[in-house]
């Protein structure tokens, strides 16, 4: 009897534990789905990760995580999660839809159509499958089948607003503007309160029919329905410009700057308009803003140079002209303009030299129909008009410097949504600099973040904290914060207290280490290093001291260099360890490292000292993943990419969910030209909570 009772109790206990686990995973999955619904994509991924860790055999969390990744435009990651979901349950119809959309965005149109066909076997009248399939067929230039799919879609859903809008784009592909406008008219008749159709009709009337007044009327109505769409204001500004309404155009760009202060196109175009109306100082402000975000924007540089010349700042003008002419050595107007600025500076010889160079290029144009651009490509000697035959605008992809005075437009007038939050919604659209995740160190503080991974763990750190040797819990973090006034006072008082302890017992390494933390937090790196040196002299196996000494030395190097290079406008901003990183403006071709000393420069000794400390940490604890990560960062600044990859590989081997290491390794792969591996690592980093990874993936995919 007692055995039976024992068996029953064990069964009840196991059942209860299983039930609790079931309730736990269901609860976490539901929270993730709620986050997904409210467009907290990054946060939702963290919840789905938890479910996958506990129950990796479930299909649903992979599917929902794929939806989140799709929303973040991590198409490869979404495709892979759909693969996992379908492997576990091939009857989740939505997985074929999400994978089809991901493949479509990756350019695998045939694969997307295959997924849509599978979905249509389960749901033969599903409008999403039909609509996406038709679009994929258009992208494959399979116009006959696309037309049949659109016809089926509209026959099944004759009141589908989106079906007519999609088919209107199909007609534009076939150069049939009449049918395109007819479908948009039909969409408007179905729902006259949707702004997109009016905006699209305005673009067609503007681009294809030159009906500027009618285009303006449609765009005005689109803005009445949706007054927060920045793309509508940008497009209306162009339409107004063609109607010679300069003030109206400027008002539209100013409004974009108000609601989206970082919009580069609005600042650039407003700068051109201010230049035209003689508001030179404000125009300089606009071009300077553009250059703060895009230092190699030679159009902004040249226009600012002209403005500097006009207001008499010839030194600044020449500096900007120099940069432009270095990139465009056959730009005759640039040499002529610089010759005038040099003459104003009493540099008659330099002015004469530039004048002769300009005349030589002009003479060359008289004798040849072709010139060669800085990349060795043949270009026309004339400023060709755009495809639509006008000379008022320049497309983003057009780098002909002779079009410096034209308004900038996107390569195609797209109507894009604006998302204000940096975390919620489409965080991949953030215009952020691409930087490596910074080095770790031991500290008392770090930024609070709902997206941070589980607490950084180290068995040595845990044991140290249990011993209670410091007044506060010690953390290992690469997201430390600046302390406030109250904390500064506290740490200065702590320095005084530890100084007394050291005076009483100078052979105890702990007060020195504690005081080094205080010095570090109040930005006194020299004293922090002195204390860490004393700690190591007293205890040659103190891992924390070696680790922090290397990290602080690295910061000290960067701080020193930031002061030495503060007047160099070509350098990225240097702020703490982040400045050791990449900056990027033009995909992987423009990724570069911060301006720390090369190994053969004066800084080689500092590098050696830093690397020796990390080597020592690793010799004391070969499983300390943060030492490999930090050493990988240092080797990146030395451009020793092979060694850096080895370090990031080891960090990931020791900790398979090391998001920062995936991110940095991904950037190294991208820098080395292996985008496939790079994007895979960046996708993994995004999955694990590094928000900026999705912005990098989007840039690489554009």
Automatic annotation (TrEMBL):
<keyword id="KW-0677">Repeat</keyword>
<feature type="repeat" description="TPR">
    <location>
        <begin position="298"/>
        <end position="331"/>
    </location>
</feature>
<feature type="compositionally biased region" description="Basic and acidic residues">
    <location>
        <begin position="381"/>
        <end position="396"/>
    </location>
</feature>
<dbReference type="InterPro" id="IPR019734">
    <property type="entry name" value="TPR_rpt"/>
</dbReference>
<feature type="repeat" description="TPR">
    <location>
        <begin position="264"/>
        <end position="297"/>
    </location>
</feature>
<feature type="region of interest" description="Disordered">
    <location>
        <begin position="372"/>
        <end position="396"/>
    </location>
</feature>
<dbReference type="Pfam" id="PF00515">
    <property type="entry name" value="TPR_1"/>
</dbReference>
<feature type="repeat" description="TPR">
    <location>
        <begin position="625"/>
        <end position="658"/>
    </location>
</feature>
<dbReference type="Pfam" id="PF13414">
    <property type="entry name" value="TPR_11"/>
</dbReference>
<dbReference type="InterPro" id="IPR011990">
    <property type="entry name" value="TPR-like_helical_dom_sf"/>
</dbReference>
<feature type="repeat" description="TPR">
    <location>
        <begin position="127"/>
        <end position="160"/>
    </location>
</feature>
<dbReference type="InterPro" id="IPR050498">
    <property type="entry name" value="Ycf3"/>
</dbReference>
<dbReference type="Pfam" id="PF13432">
    <property type="entry name" value="TPR_16"/>
</dbReference>
<keyword id="KW-0802">TPR repeat</keyword>
<protein>
    <submittedName>
        <fullName>Tetratricopeptide repeat protein</fullName>
    </submittedName>
</protein>
<feature type="repeat" description="TPR">
    <location>
        <begin position="93"/>
        <end position="126"/>
    </location>
</feature>
């Amino acid at each position: 009897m007692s055995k039976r009772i024992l068996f029953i109790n064990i069964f009840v206990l196991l059942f209860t534990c299983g039930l609790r686990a079931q309730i736990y995973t269901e609860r976490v999955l539901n929270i993730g789905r709620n986050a997904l619904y409210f467009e907290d994509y990054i946060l939702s991924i963290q919840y789905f990760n938890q479910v996958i860790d506990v129950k990796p055999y479930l299909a649903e969390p992979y599917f929902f995580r794929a939806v989140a990744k799709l929303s973040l435009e991590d198409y490869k990651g979404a495709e892979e999660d759909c693969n996992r979901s379908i492997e576990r349950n091939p009857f989740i119809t939505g997985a074929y839809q999400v994978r089809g959309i991901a493949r479509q965005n990756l350019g695998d149109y045939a694969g997307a159509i295959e997924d849509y066909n599978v979905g249509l076997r389960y749901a033969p009248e599903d409008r999403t499958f039909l609509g996406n399939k038709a679009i994929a067929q258009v992208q494959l230039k399979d116009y006959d089948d696309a037309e049949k799919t659109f016809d089926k879609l509209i026959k099944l859903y004759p009141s589908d607003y989106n079906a007519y809008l999609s088919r209107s784009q199909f007609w534009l592909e076939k150069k049939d503007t009449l049918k395109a406008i007819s479908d948009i008219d039909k969409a408007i008749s179905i729902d006259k309160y949707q702004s997109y159709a009016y905006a699209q009709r305005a673009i067609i009337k503007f681009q294809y029919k030159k009906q500027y007044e009618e285009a303006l009327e449609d765009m005005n109505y689109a803005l009445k329905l949706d007054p927060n769409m920045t793309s509508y204001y940008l497009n209306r500004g162009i339409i107004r410009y063609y109607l010679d309404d300069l003030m109206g155009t400027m008002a539209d760009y100013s409004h974009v700057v108000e609601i989206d202060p970082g919009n580069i196109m609005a600042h650039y175009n407003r700068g051109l308009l201010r230049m035209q109306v003689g508001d030179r100082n404000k125009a300089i402000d606009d071009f300077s803003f553009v250059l703060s975000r895009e230092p190699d924007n030679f159009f902004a540089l040249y226009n600012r140079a002209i403005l500097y010349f006009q207001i008499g700042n010839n030194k600044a003008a020449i500096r900007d002209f120099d940069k432009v002419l270095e990139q465009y050595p056959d730009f005759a107007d640039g040499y002529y303009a610089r010759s005038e600025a040099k003459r104003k500076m009493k540099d008659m010889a330099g002015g004469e030299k530039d004048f002769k160079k300009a005349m030589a290029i002009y003479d060359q144009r008289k004798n040849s129909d072709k010139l060669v651009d800085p990349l060795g490509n043949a270009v026309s000697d004339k400023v060709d008009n755009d495809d639509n035959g006008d000379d008022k605008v320049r497309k983003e992809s057009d780098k002909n410097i002779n079009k410096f005075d034209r308004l900038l437009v996107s390569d195609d007038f797209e109507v894009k949504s604006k998302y204000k939050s940096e975390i919620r919604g489409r965080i991949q659209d953030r215009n952020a600099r691409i930087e490596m995740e910074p080095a770790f160190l031991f500290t008392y503080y770090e930024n609070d973040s709902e997206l941070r991974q589980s607490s950084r763990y180290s068995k040595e750190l845990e044991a140290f904290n249990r011993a209670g040797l410091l007044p506060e819990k010690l953390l290992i973090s690469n997201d430390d914060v600046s302390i406030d006034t109250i904390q500064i006072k506290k740490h200065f008082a702590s320095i005084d207290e530890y100084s007394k302890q050291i005076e009483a017992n100078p052979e105890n390494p702990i007060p020195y280490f504690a005081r080094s933390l205080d010095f570090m937090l109040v930005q006194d790196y020299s004293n922090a290093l002195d204390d860490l040196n004393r700690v190591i002299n007293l205890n040659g196996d103190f891992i924390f001291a070696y680790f922090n000494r290397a990290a602080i030395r690295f910061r000290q190097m960067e701080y020193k260099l930031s002061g030495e290079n503060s007047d160099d406008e070509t350098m990225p901003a240097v702020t703490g360890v982040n400045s050791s990183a990449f900056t990027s403006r033009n995909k992987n071709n423009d990724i570069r490292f911060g301006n720390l000393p090369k190994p053969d420069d004066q800084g080689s000794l500092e590098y050696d000292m830093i690397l020796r400390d990390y080597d020592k940490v690793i010799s004391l604890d070969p499983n300390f993943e943060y030492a490999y990560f930090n050493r990988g960062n240092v080797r990146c600044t030395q451009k020793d990419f092979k060694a850096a990859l080895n370090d990031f590989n080891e960090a990931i081997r020791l900790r398979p969910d090391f998001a920062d290491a995936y991110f940095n390794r991904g950037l190294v792969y991208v820098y080395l030209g292996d985008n496939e591996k790079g994007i895979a690592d960046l996708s993994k980093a995004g999955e694990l909570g590094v928000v900026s990874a999705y912005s990098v993936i989007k840039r690489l995919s554009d």
